[in-house]
Write a structure and sequence with these properties.
By secondary structure, the protein is α+β, with helices and mostly antiparallel strands. Helices cover about 25% and strands about 35% of the residues. The protein has helices at about 25-35, 80-85, 115-125, 125-135, 145-160; strands spanning about 45-50, 55-65, 65, 70-75, 90-95, 100-110, 170-185, 195-200, 205-210. It starts with about 25 loop residues before the first helix and ends with a strand. The structure holds flavin mononucleotide.
Length: about 210
């Protein structure tokens, strides 16, 4: 069947205010765990939206690496997204776990984590990824795949096998502190459930939205 013409039923599982934790980040944590349990590949992947200085919105997938007072992901600070965030901290994040009929939409501010936090996470990465952080000027053009591989090979040889690889100064984490989080649960007949949390002083204002 033409996948564009399909009409899927999104299920009967209810989702209401009693199913969400008073801290929406805890519900997000639970939904990532649920997505993992459902066998979803990379359940911690989300689409990060940024706005660059020409007010062009751009988006790409990144991986959630830590969930605390915000959502932490790691990247190259000089990449397209890094430059956009450093100029405008407003970002969006979209988690889409379609096979379990769930989506989370987030808006907030992203700021760099401390160098110590980036160091700690960098040290936990496989050596190959550490060297890649030095080898790639993310988002800039490269002449060919061969050129990239040769540069990576040179760096692998230069770092050798023993000495620890230091974190490049242009690589590290950002923490997105949300001011809006919306949980979406698909329901039959497109009568979906949507529960939005908006920051209100020290707490959150909770609103149910029409599908
Ligand atoms: C599943 C998946 C996970 C990814 N995770 C990351 C990540 O955590 N950090 C990152 O910098 N890029 C990640 N990428 C690559 C980005 O989507 C993107 O191509 C890259 O960061 C360059 O984006 P930019 O040019 O907008 O800065 C991931 C891509 C996919 C498909």
């Amino acid at each position: 069947m033409d996948p564009l013409a399909r009409h899927s039923d999104y299920g009967h599982e209810e989702f209401d205010e009693s199913h969400v934790h008073e801290d929406p980040l805890e519900t997000l944590r639970q939904w990532v765990i649920d997505a993992d349990a459902a066998g979803i590949y990379e359940p911690n992947a989300f689409v990060l939206g940024t706005i660059d200085p020409t007010v062009t919105p751009t988006a790409r997938t990144v991986l959630l690496k830590q969930l605390d007072s915000g959502l932490v992901f790691v990247t190259n600070y000089l990449s397209r997204k890094g430059r956009a965030i450093d100029a405008n901290s407003r970002v969006s994040a979209v988690f889409g776990w379609y096979s379990i009929h769930r989506q989370v939409l987030i808006e907030g501010n992203a700021t760099r984590v401390t160098p110590a936090e980036s160091d700690e996470y960098f040290a936990s990465r496989p050596r190959g990824s550490q060297v890649a952080a030095w080898a790639s000027d993310q988002s800039t053009p490269v002449e060919s795949r061969n050129r990239l591989d040769a540069h990576y090979g040179d760096l692998l040889a230069r770092f050798g096998d023993d000495s620890p690889v230091e974190r490049p100064p242009h690589w590290g984490g950002y923490r997105i502190v949300p001011d809006r989080i919306e949980f979406w649960k698909g329901r039959s007949n497109r009568m979906h459930d949507r529960i939005a949390f908006e920051r209100d002083g020290d707490g959150w204002r909770v609103t149910r939205l029409q599908p």
